[in-house]
Amino acid sequence: FKASELHMDWFHVVAAAERALAGQADPLGVAVLNLMSGDTAQLRSEIGSGKDNLRTAIGVALEAGWLIGAASAQMQLGLGHFDEGELESAKASFNQSVEWYREGGSRYGQARATGNLGLVYCDTGPLPTGVELLTRFDASRLEFGFVAGRAHSLCALGFATFKAGDVTEARRLLDQSLE
Asked: What angle do CA 48, 52, 57 make, to 5 degrees?
């Protein structure tokens, strides 16, 4: 198979899941569907309805004992809050998702939530906390062997360092992200 033959559009995946789960009371399926629907709504800039789906996903995932699913939905909810400028709510969502990922043993999820939390701290302060969290996120990229994705974390860290007033270090990080 070629990769293009295996690719499915995310919106079609959500629609297929809705059809497959219609009329069923499977809590895990309901959690997955609401997580996917919330994510899709946010991609379509329907943040309000997306947040409603994500809140449902969190509750049902916790009820079903799916802590990593709840953490994923919580992180997506944090992104919705962040997009709407609800920074304290975003901070609370990302903090909760870091904790749930930690409890569930997902170091990768914990790292992603930590990076998102760092970006919020860049806006709310204290800025050194944002830089510290983004530095940990960047280090996780190397730890997990995700070198190709490191450009993203270096850009975020460069932005935070620039906001902190260290233009030389910011430029070094941003230049490194382009290598």
From this structure: 140
Q: Quick one: which H or E segment has residue 96?
A: helix 87-104
Which structure tokens are listed for 72? 């994923």
Q: What is the dihedral of CA 16, 51, 28, 43, to 10 degrees?
A: 30
Question: pLDDT of 62-76, one tens digit each?
Answer: 988 889 989 999 999
Measured CA to CA, the distance from residue 169 to residue 179 in angstroms comes to 16
How many Cβ atoms sit within 10 Å of the Cβ of residue 79? Answer: 21
Rounded to the nearest 5 percent, the helix, strand and coil shares of the chain are 85, 0, 15
- Predicted TM-score of the model (pTM): 0.79
